[in-house]
From TrEMBL, chain A:
Pfam families: Fer4_9. GO terms for molecular function: 4 iron, 4 sulfur cluster binding; metal ion binding; oxidoreductase activity. The keyword Oxidoreductase applies. It comes from Pontibacter virosus. Residues 300-330, 373-405 form the 4Fe-4S ferredoxin-type domain. InterPro entries: 4Fe4S_Fe-S-bd, 4Fe4S_Fe_S_CS, HdrC_iron-sulfur_subunit, Helical_ferredxn, NarG-like_sf. Keywords: 4Fe-4S, Iron, Iron-sulfur, Membrane, Metal-binding, Oxidoreductase, Transmembrane, Transmembrane helix. It comes from the Bacteria. This is 4Fe-4S dicluster protein. The chain crosses the membrane at residues 6-24, 67-89, 109-129, 155-175, 212-228. The keyword Glycosyltransferase does not apply.
TrEMBL record, chain B:
It holds the Pfam family CCG. Signal peptide: none annotated. This is Cysteine-rich domain-containing protein. Keywords: 4Fe-4S, Iron, Iron-sulfur, Metal-binding, Oxidoreductase. It comes from Pontibacter virosus. Coiled coil: none annotated.
Amino acid sequence: MIQLENIIFLIVAALGIGLFVWQIRKIRKNVLMGRDVDLSDNPSERINKTLLVAFGQQKMFKRMLPAVLHLFVYVGFLVINIEVIEILIDGVFGTHRVLAFLGPLYSALMFINEILAALVIVACVIFLWRRNVTKLPRLATGVEMRAWPKLDANFILITEIVLMLALFTFNIAGLKLVQLDGGEVAGSYPISQMFVNFFGDNPNSLHIIERAGWWFHIIGILAFMNYLPSSKHFHIIMAFPNVYYSKLWPKGKFTTNPAITHEIKAMLDPSYQPPAPEMDAEGNPIVQRFGAKDVEDLTWKQLMDAYTCTECGRCTSVCPANITGKLLSPRKIVMDTRDRMEEKGESPAIFAPNHYKELGVERVQTTDEKTLLRGYITPEELWACTTCNACVESCPVNIDQLSTIMDLRRYLVLEESAAPASVNAMFTNIENNGAPWAFSPSDRFNWSEDLYVPSKN
Amino acid sequence: MEENKRLVKVPTMAEMAANGEEPEVLFWVGCAGSFDDRYKRVTRAFVQILEHVGVKYAVLGTEESCTGEPAKRAGNEFLFQMQAITNIEVLNAYNIKKIVTACPHCFNTIKNEYPDLGGNYEVIHHSTFLQQLINEGKVKVQGGEAFKGKRITFHDSCYLGRANDIYEAPRDVLAALDADLVEMKRSRANGLCCGAGGAQMFKEPEPGKKDINIERTEEALATLGTGNGVIATACPFCMVMMSDGVKNKEQEESVKVFDIAELIAQAEGLSK
């Protein structure tokens, strides 16, 4: 029996989902600002990686405590979503606990749900504690941890706790109502059972509380979903495609620019015919920058990285440059990329970029240039990188911070010749002597002089 | 003892090709191995091992040139590709199939970055090569007892470890010595960089609180504890950074920095 309540629900759900789709399209547009790169190879290896690293949380387990707590929230999210499906069906068709026909399976599901919901609350409280009381350095410090990223993180944790409490409210009130009716309870609710008398025994008020809990939970979920695109919490969606498209070759292999290869081959061999350049829509050849100055010079995968980052700071906490007090923070590189993308392209509903300069962070010497390089990320940061891959290794969602650092560095060197003087000297040595130091190539084999080994007999 | 040793004549590819011969493996020496006084000793130790086990090897000699790796990491893709394409021409002209090198940076570049430019070879790092020689019984490490009770800690090179997932080979090589192998807290995939990668070797560090090699050396010294110890490396840049770190901490009397090839050559009685 479909009533007014169901029609209202249908409208609310449609609005929520519609708004979400609208935001996703904006983000898709932003990501597609990036250069094209073909990552359609090796689907089976990619699926394996996605199962292990994204679904299986493999890389989280490098740090046990947060891994276990995060697992509670993650599994809670996955399993409780089954109940959300039920809520949606109930909401549309005016049914009550429509999946109850599953019998023992339903009981088990509801039982697990309650346990998980409680664990989610515990985990979120500990997470809040780590952020705000013990102030774990990777979560609490760093120039990129400005007001918004900190508020964002706390907001999500508190919302998750409130959503779980709404779920319990709904379960407790429903349970008590069934008990008062003397009916059979569909499902098993160990936690709600403990608090079954919490809301008293007035059927009218219990009914209102039950409905309020239900509405709060579902509207909360819809609102939360629409908050995601503005938040670091968007990783709960992006982690999966981002891991799927992660780098499959050894981490030491950096990209090779084929345009440069053609140029060199043509230089060495005048008969070499480089392929015709790609044309844009108007038939003009596309002139591509060497390296990256702004977000559109990065690949869509590098831009997707930025939307996947949950700002956990594992990368920065293992970065040798950052550990020793240099300005470089791999997390900042990724967060800057996202901010710049939204400044240049589309921005979702909530967006508050604040510049380091405006914040008075003196060490970040950004300029007024409207580009990722210098406008957000400074050469000092880029030149501090040792390309050690510790950031890439540490990222639980396979973000490749190093590739972005390298592309920005390439722009500095190839387009601006803006390398530090000693690095330029190294280039000159390689050009002239075939070695990064100023040694004569004719001395290269001198090491072999006067070398002895014991005779065998 | 004098009469019990022979002078090594290191074979070059040019000579081999002139005689119509092909080596089993080309030893890519690298710039540090050719020019840096400290790392030349590693090159020599590795050649002593090659000579000792009778591997048919050759070097390019003066025909070798920088792989272009430092240029690439510094962002100079143009210079990198110039070097790479020129080197690949030389290697392909000699029909090289297998390359061994004692430098993880050369190793990574030739193995992973040369194929896109037409250079396809089987490339192995000397740690893997030594591990194979030990496993095959060609290197017996009889003198390994000399290391008994000595504490050795292995410092992972980024370009061997995280870049190419080679963590066990150098440790297996060290395990052949009768030493007390101790691990730093940050090791293997979590190893801390020495601070020289990404062309940092050729520039002053950016402003900060501390140099990276000091941070790493402090960790190594704390792991080794008091008394004599060895920091084992498998990379010329790590060798420089860790040696400088030990010197900075004024520990060079008690703590030595050695490449794994030097330790094996010592244990094999090949060098002193």
